[in-house]
Structure formats: C-alpha cells, structure tokens
Amino acid sequence: MREKTHAGSKKNLLGDNPSPDLVALLSNEEQVTKDTPPTFLVHTMTDAGVPIENTLMFAAALRRAGVPFEIHLYERGPHGFGLGGNDPILSTWPARCADWLRVHNFAAQ
C-alpha cells in the first residue's frame, strides 16, 4: 500500500495520517511468506480504482517467496467487473480460476 495505493481506500482503512509501521503491516506485498497460500490473481490494465502495479507487486512478492500463483491480466475492463457479465473476454476468468482450483486440488476434478 505504498505509492501505488488507492488513496481513498488507504484513508478509509488507515485514517488520515497512518504510521509507516501500520502502512507496512497492511501492505499485502510486504506480508508474503513461504506460508502464504497459493494465489489466483485477476486484474485489468485499465482499472481506474486500483493500479495494476498493486497486483504486479503482490505477484512479485509471491514469486520471491516461492508461493505458487497464477495471474490473469486483461487489457481492458473496469474496477469491480465481478464475474465479467456479458463481456466475452472478462467473463472467461471464472473458468480459468476453476481450472486453477482443480490443478491445486482445491476443487473436485
């Protein structure tokens, strides 16, 4: 939650003047360890609410820690696109996630 943070969310969650220690504690990419669960990430390059860099920093932290992850970056799409609705591209992510869950034995084959 450093310089790539969504300012409104940071203020709502941490207040007007959070301590650097609190910011670090609640920065997901700073909390990744080898014990972090395998992770599936989805983001769009045009998300106006949360910068793509947040997902990329988290993915980099997962990689450094040796945590399995899969990341799907879509060229276009709004923040909060849910299951993708009627968008023929964005609506593919739930199936990709289901495949990933099966590969990791989190869901039945």
Percentage of β-strand residues = 5-15%
Number of helices, where a helix is a run of at least 4 consecutive DSSP H or I residues: 4
Largest sheet: 2 strands, parallel
SSE order in H/E notation? HHEHEH
CATH architecture field: 3-Layer(aba) Sandwich
Please give the order of strands in the largest beta sheet.
1-2
Give start-end ranges of low-pLDDT stretches.
none
User: Could you name the CATH homologous superfamily?
Assistant: Alpha/Beta hydrolase fold, catalytic domain
Q: Using the alpha-carbon principal axes, give the shape.
A: globular
Give the CATH class. Alpha Beta
Topology, number of strands: 2
Q: Assign the structural class, choosing from mainly alpha, mainly beta, alpha/beta, alpha+beta, or little secondary structure.
A: alpha+beta
Quick check: average pLDDT? 90
Look up the CATH topology: Rossmann fold
Radius of gyration: 15 Å
Domain count, please report it.
1
Question: What gap, in angstroms, lies between the N and C termini?
Answer: 36 Å
SSE layout and pairing:
Elements (H helix, E strand, L loop, with lengths): L6 H8 L5 H6 L13 E6 L7 H14 L3 E6 L18 H11 L6
Parallel strand pairs: 1-2
Structural description of this entry:
- This protein is of the alpha+beta class and 109 residues long.
- The protein has four helices and two strands.
- It has a two-stranded parallel sheet.
- Helix 3 links the parallel strand 1 and strand 2.
- The relative contact order is 0.15.
- The mean pLDDT is 90.
